[in-house]
Amino acid sequence: LRGQADLAALSLRHHKPSVHQKKRPKNQKAGAVFDALELMRIQLIGSETMHGVATNLDNRMTNYCENQGYK
């Protein structure tokens, strides 16, 4: 829950939807990669500047992977 809240706050602060949409490739697969890279960029900014956020985002990813059945 904390990781999701941190990600939402980071997105509000560092993601610019209009810029993202302008630069996003029209190709579906390329657009999905672009979106994933933007998500990683936002998380990296928060992780590098706030240790607690890094821990929360790590826990979020661990929970996601476990819920998907990854080991």
Keyword list:
mainly alpha; 4 helices; 71 residues; single chain; 85% helix
What would your notes on this structure say?
- The chain is mostly helical.
- About 85% of the residues lie in helices and about 0% in strands.
- The chain has 4 helices and no strands.
- Helix 1 crosses helix 3 and helix 3 crosses helix 4.
- The longest helix has 22 residues.
- It starts with a helix and ends with a helix.
- The mean pLDDT is about 95.
What's the layout of helices and strands?
Blueprint: H1 2-14, H2 17-23, H3 28-49, H4 51-68
Helix pairs in contact: 1-3, 1-4, 3-4
Describe, in short, the structure shown.
By secondary structure, this protein is mainly α.
Tally of DSSP helical segments: 4
| Helical proportion, percent range | over 70%
Order of helices and strands: HHHH
Helix/strand class: mainly alpha
